Amino acid sequence: MKKLISFLFVLVLLASCSKSNLNEPVGKAIIGHWKLTQVIHLITKNDASRYDGRNVEDKNIVFEFNSNGYLSIHNEPQADSSELYPYEVTRGRYFLQDTTTPPAKLDILTFGGKRYTISIEYSSGAINKKNQQLKLSDYTNMYNQVTLWLSRE
Questions:
Q1: What's the pTM?
Q2: What is the pLDDT of residue 125?
Q3: By C-alpha distance, which of 85, 37, 82, 91 is closest to 65?
Q4: What is the pLDDT of residue 13?
Q5: Cα-based distances in Å from 11 to 1, 14, 18
Q6: SS3 helix, strand, coil % of the chain, rounded to 5?
Q7: Which of 111, 153, 145, 150 is CA-nearest to residue 134?
Q8: How far apart are CA 82 and CA 65, in angstroms?
């Protein structure tokens, strides 16, 4: 009986997740405040690769994506927090010069002269905005790839 009740509880919980929230376009889903938590570098040298990850949660760096298409970055020493960066989210190929393969269906975030693949993932627990994590990956330098992890504020 306990197993049946547990199963029904899980079923109701899953059914209560709004499908529209899960399928919301990334360009709309990123609007809001995101705290930078990790920076991970994949460094390749002499055919050997290694990861260098840093936890930066204590730096309190916040990315604020506005619905008007502008981004501000707060508490980042190299960024002016009063400066607004225009951003755009599109779908397509990451490497623009690659015309030989079919267009990939990647979400691409462009701002500050850089292109990042962008995805929204969920940490533990229920699938809701509170548990969202934003993953931004920059592959422009194949010898030093960068991935930023941010958590919704």
A1: 0.72
A2: 61
A3: 85
A4: 33
A5: 15, 5, 13
A6: 20, 45, 35
A7: 150
A8: 13
pLDDT digits (tens, 9 = 90+) for 12-33: 333 334 333 456 788 899 999 9
What separation, in Å, do the N-terminal and C-terminal C-alpha atoms of the chain show?
39
| pLDDT > 90 in the chain, percent | 32
**CB within 8 Å of 107: residues ≥ 6 apart:** 26, 27, 89, 90, 91, 117, 118, 119
Least Cα distance to 115 among 144, 141, 152, 149 occurs for 141
What is the rounded distance in angstroms from the CA atom of residue 32 to the CA atom of residue 48? 38
- Do residues 58 and 36 touch, judged by C-beta distance below 8 A? no
CA nearest to 112, candidates 80, 144, 134: 80
- Residue 56: pLDDT over 70: yes
